[in-house]
Amino acid sequence: MKFSDFDSGSWETNGHYYDTCLIPFTGLTGQESPPQAMERLEKLRDYIDRIECPFRGRIVVYPAVQYDIDNKEHLINEICHNVKSSNFRYAIVLDAGGTLTAEDIFESDLLIAIKGFFDDNSVREIGLAAQEIQRMWKKDIN
User: Fold this and answer.
1) Exposure string (b/e) for 28-55, b if CB count within 10 Å is 16 or more?
2) Which of 15, 37, 49, 116 has its Cα between 20 and 30 A from that of 43?
3) Mean pLDDT by 10 residues, the chain (142 residues)
4) How far apart are CA 100 and CA 117, in angstroms?
5) pTM for this structure?
6) Cβ-contact 106, 35 below 8 angstroms
């Protein structure tokens, strides 16, 4: 579900079921034309839906970090830390920019990098991402 699908009452009632936060990173530079930016955002939306839908009822999608700035790793780590400190057990970062590394985004429990951003292997990549999410959850059970 998207963060905007909740009001304070529904979060109070059902929030404890949602233990995972998905934080998208778009990776825009500001050099994109408006149609290029729109295309990238639409593709990111589609990718988010493909990741979130199989796990509906467990994952909440937060607003995206849109721009690829110099200090993006610090910003994303701070967001991951904050969501895990307040409402969620897990933070997943979805990297559409292709510039993040797991070593740099150490506060996230999982970094899903979209190689080629919707290349010919997008269906395969979604399946691998789903497996990694399940592996992350199972790691805590064992």
Assistant:
1) beeeeeeeebeebbebbeebbebbbeee
2) 15
3) 85 88 94 92 88 90 94 96 95 90 95 66 72 89 66
4) 14
5) 0.89
6) no
